[in-house]
Structures are given as structure tokens and as C-alpha cells.
Design brief:
The protein is an all-alpha fold. It has 11 helices and 2 strands; from the N terminus they run H-H-H-H-H-H-H-H-H-E-E-H-H. The chain has 2 domains: about 80 residues, no CATH class; about 130 residues, Enzyme I, Chain A, domain 2 (Orthogonal Bundle). Helix 2 packs parallel to helix 4.
């Protein structure tokens, strides 16, 4: 029988054991800073972590939150939970900056094909509407990565439905095809993150294909 410690923190420690020492130390420091509400320092350090490493950090924070909620009595409807208050404090001024750090890592990694075709629009939404960015992280409880993927799907859906990226009716040009690839990758990533369901993805994709077919 194994006597290894279990739980999100122990799992995280085992995960980062294979990371480069510098990144492992940075990840632990970012977690510590976020939980202490020192968001400015956390934002500064997070820029040196990869997208995958940032995912692990956020997953740990989500697990800690879930466990904290599970052992508490059900809060009164009018009262925020401890972690809700923490989220408000953490994202008070730096939601857009932190999300932009993740944005830059995602764009650099090229994990989402075609992202560069809508990156300016997505960046503008993040920094141009900081109140909405913060609300997405605090009220809707989206991770920065999930929010960026959501913005990618919203922007690409709008552009592909406009007909401006068709070579003729129902047929996309190069830029349109790249944006469609970005839409698909971002939408599927949201399924992986639990932001929406596979059924939701398929329904929205079907609707987009119909818009593309009728436009141009």
C-alpha cells in the first residue's frame, strides 16, 4: 500500500518534479503569491512560464478552491465565498495584464493555428474592456486561457459570417480558412477545459458552417 501523500498540492509537486528547476520554483512562487493576493508580483513571474505550465498552476488553484468549498457549509446566497473574495482581490487591477501574459504565451506557442489572424482583435478586447475581462475571471470563473479561447471563437465567428473572407459564395479564402482553424482549435480547447460541452461545440460549429455556406 502506497504511503505517498495525495491531494492537489502533492500531485502538483510530483508534476513539477520533472520541470526545469527555475520554472518549478517560479510556479510554486506564483501559486503562493496568488493565494496571498499579491497579484502584481504573480503577474510579473508568470510571464516566464509556458502555456502548459500556466495551465498546471491554474488547475492547482482551481482544485484548492474546490476542496475549500467542499468542506465549508453552504454559504448564504447574498454572501461571497472566501475564494470569491480572494478572486476579487487578486483580479482587482491586474486581470487584463495577467490575461495578456497568457495571451502572449499562447500566441508565441502557436498551439492554435490561425490565432495570428485575429490576435489584434482579441488583444484589443482584453485590454480595451478591462472590466469585462475581470468579470469573466471573477464572476464567470473562467481561466485566462479559457477566456482567450472564448474571445477567439467570438471574433472568428463574427468575421467568418461577414462574407469578407470568402473567394466566392460559400467558399473561404486563405485567411478565412486559417480563422476557421483557429475557431475549431479554440472551441475544442474550451471543451477540454470544461468551459462548454462537446454538444455545445458541435452545435455552434454547425451554425458557423451554415453561416459560411450562405455568406460571400
Amino acid at each position: 500500500m502506497s504511503n505517498k501523500p495525495s491531494g492537489p498540492i502533492a500531485d502538483f509537486q510530483r508534476e513539477i518534479a520533472d520541470w526545469p528547476v527555475k520554472q518549478a520554483k517560479l510556479a510554486l512562487e506564483v501559486v503562493s503569491l496568488v493565494l496571498r493576493g499579491e497579484s502584481a508580483k504573480a503577474n510579473q513571474l508568470s510571464g516566464d512560464l509556458s502555456v502548459g505550465q500556466l495551465r498546471k498552476v491554474h488547475a492547482l488553484l482551481e482544485c484548492i478552491e474546490a476542496e475549500a468549498e467542499a468542506v465549508k457549509e453552504k454559504p448564504k446566497p447574498a454572501k461571497d465565498s472566501l475564494f470569491q473574495r480572494l478572486r476579487r482581490a487578486v483580479w482587482k487591477d491586474d486581470a487584463a495584464e495577467f490575461t495578456l501574459n497568457v495571451f502572449n504565451q499562447m500566441l508565441k506557442s502557436r498551439e492554435i493555428r490561425g490565432f495570428e489572424f485575429v490576435s489584434d482583435d482579441v488583444r484589443s478586447l482584453i485590454v480595451g474592456e478591462p472590466a469585462k475581462t475581470r468579470a469573466s475571471l471573477v464572476e464567470d470563473r473562467l481561466s485566462p486561457e479559457a477566456l482567450i479561447c472564448l474571445l477567439i471563437t467570438n471574433v472568428t465567428f463574427q468575421k467568418l459570417s461577414s462574407g469578407r473572407y470568402h473567394v466566392y459564395r460559400g467558399v473561404l479564402g486563405h485567411a478565412g480558412n486559417e480563422m476557421l482553424a483557429a475557431y475549431l482549435a479554440a472551441s475544442l480547447r474550451m471543451v477540454e477545459l470544461g468551459t462548454h460541452t462537446r454538444q455545445h461545440h458541435e452545435k455552434d460549429y454547425e451554425r458557423l458552417c451554415q453561416e459560411i455556406k450562405e455568406a460571400g
